[in-house]
Design goal:
By secondary structure, the protein is of the alpha+beta class. It is 31% helix and 28% strand. It contains 16 helices and 20 strands. It has a 20-stranded antiparallel β-sheet, sandwiched between helices.
Length: 550
């Protein structure tokens, strides 16, 4: 590995790792609270970043203040390992001058704007300085050490700013450093990136801080946020080589803030034009959750699925999956694969054959069993529900299933059954005997004002016996939703320990994330997602990570 790439790898990996440390370290805040409040509500380094930058991420607190949050010196070990190859001593060379902001941006998709030689993204790191003289000394020291190691340095004055870079590297990897004014030390992977950063300061209409879309987004940052990321969504899509045919949202801002029981990540998606108003907000969890057993690994609840396909959430999902997967084809949410399998096996369309008649409350849940097919669907009885049930019975019949009335405990239920033959051979000399067995493919019943569907008899039995141990009465669930504003559109609740294996099978990249953020994932109890915006020009929501603080 060459000298430049090893250090710039430190810059990029360091910024990412610091954000991971923020998340991982929040666990220890719960055990020994400290006064950790960001000194600024938004990144000051945005003046260096182009308004067309795809991604800008900032830590808004001095990394050393996270030292009070760490356990077993994770942060110290990380600093040491990342700086080892760069011959830099963090405590001696960086700590004295480092201020309260670390910002990393992908400033451009292609430094030389020449598509013939492929994309060469421009990276910029801005480190706030509280002692300009010492930060000047650090930059000089750092490049002097590279020169002693054989690097060919170049020095350039650009609009009154001294740029130093290692000219012995390929043009696309010219590590460049500079101290700008009294506030920031800048590093980039090419002098062109630093020149543009200086231009952005001197021509405000070019920089992110003056970009109307960014100004609108930063107004959504909650007070006390310790880390913030801004995404220019069309540019992120372009980065993936994708031109979206339907672009609903232009930008996204994400913030991370402490909570006594964990970490709250809030995000706002901003649209350039008016979007559909959200469904009327719910002031409390839906009663349908009383029929979801407390052992559920995943639960989704809310009201009115009939307009789901045209909702702002559906448009967001389509745009997000197109950006991530590079395709605008429908992508199933990984945890809902069991329901997708039902859709394929029965030949039903969830949106048309089921969701279209769900206008009241609903709850969907998966149980943490060895298989991934044990599901529960609870829907509030409205005028259209019984017609919907009859429609499902008709679909079952057309697929060769029988509708069989049964009694489970004292509850009358209807089961969709399939008759299959089974053979039994007592010993090798006797002919096998044949018998007919009824395989249950689905069950439904009416409880109170709700129609309940399950994948099998065992799951229905869990529902019928869950009255005193339902999810809504589960203390972990109550703690998890307490961080979400009461006026919301419902919840997606995930019990981490019960769903981890399923997630890892369907999202292999998750295992890498678990390695990078081991302290965090080791203590993650659950996560809850909710949408709670009420504006017609943005979609706002949050993810609450509940952490173990026993």
């Amino acid at each position: 590995m060459n000298r430049q790439s090893s250090f710039f790898g430190f810059l990029v990996a360091g910024a990412i790792a610091l954000l991971v440390i923020v998340v991982a370290g929040f666990y220890w805040f719960v055990k020994s609270p400290v006064n950790l409040i960001a000194s600024t509500s938004q990144p000051n380094a945005a003046i260096f970043v182009s308004k067309l930058a795809p991604v800008t991420a900032s830590l808004l607190v001095n990394p050393d203040r996270l030292q009070a949050l760490e356990h077993e010196d994770e942060l110290s070990k990380l600093k040491t390992s990342l700086l080892a190859k760069s011959r830099i001593d963090y405590k001696q060379d960086i700590q004295p001058w480092l201020g309260d902001e670390v910002t990393l941006a992908i400033t451009t998709l292609d430094i030389d704007r020449d598509p013939e030689n492929g994309q060469q993204p421009g990276y910029l790191m801005a480190l706030a300085t509280k002692q300009p003289e010492k930060s000047h000394e650090f930059v000089e020291l750092f490049f002097s050490k590279r020169a002693l190691a054989g690097a060919n340095l170049a020095v350039e004055q650009y609009k009154g700013i001294k740029l130093i870079y290692d000219n012995s590297q390929p043009e696309q990897d010219l590590l460049t450093g500079a101290v700008v004014g009294e506030d920031f030390v800048l590093f980039a992977n090419n002098p062109k990136v630093l020149r543009e950063a200086i231009n952005n300061v001197q021509a405000p209409d070019l920089n992110l801080a003056k970009f109307p879309e960014y100004q609108k987004a930063t107004k959504q940052i909650p007070k006390g946020s310790l880390a913030v990321a801004f995404l220019n969504l069309p540019m992120v899509a372009k980065w993936q080589g994708l031109e979206l045919s339907e672009k609903t949202y232009d930008s996204e801002i994400i913030s991370l803030a402490l909570n006594p029981k964990g970490l709250l990540a809030e995000t706002t998606f901003l649209a350039s034009s008016e979007i559909l108003p959200p469904s009327p907000p719910l002031s409390k969890p839906v009663e349908a959750l009383h029929y979801i057993p407390g052992l559920a690994g995943l639960a989704i609840s809310g009201s009115n699925l009939s307009n789901l396909g045209n909702s702002d959430l559906a448009k967001l999902w389509k745009q997000a999956t197109a950006t991530i997967y590079g395709s605008e084809e429908d992508v199933t949410f990984p945890l809902l694969e069991p329901l997708a399998n039902v859709q394929k096996r029965w030949g039903v369309n969830l949106a048309e054959d089921i969701f279209s008649w769900v206008q009241g409350e609903y709850a969907i849940a998966l149980l943490p069993q060895q298989t991934t097919s044990q599901w529960i669907f609870v829907v509030e009885n409205t005028e259209d529900v019984q017609q919907g049930v009859a429609h499902l019975d008709a679909i079952a019949s057309s697929n060769g299933l029988s509708i069989s009335p049964l009694t489970l405990g004292k509850q009358k239920i209807s089961a969709w059954t399939e008759l299959v033959t089974a053979s039994k051979q007592p010993n090798a000399k006797e002919r096998p005997s044949l018998s007919i067995e009824a395989k249950v493919r689905g069950v439904h019943t009416t409880l109170g004002n709700y129609e309940i569907f399950t994948s099998d008899l065992e799951t229905m039995d869990e529902v019928l016996t869950a009255k005193d141990n339902s999810l809504i009465d589960n203390p972990n669930f109550q703690d998890s939703i307490a961080a979400i504003p009461q006026q919301n559109q419902g919840y997606i609740y995930l019990d981490w320990s019960k769903s981890q294996n399923l997630l890892e099978r369907q999202l292999p990249i998750l295992k890498l994330a678990e390695v990078l953020g081991k302290p965090f994932f080791d203590n993650l109890r659950s996560l809850t997602v909710s949408s709670y915006g009420t504006n017609t020009d943005s979609l706002k929501g949050g993810v609450f990570f509940q952490l173990d603080h026993s």
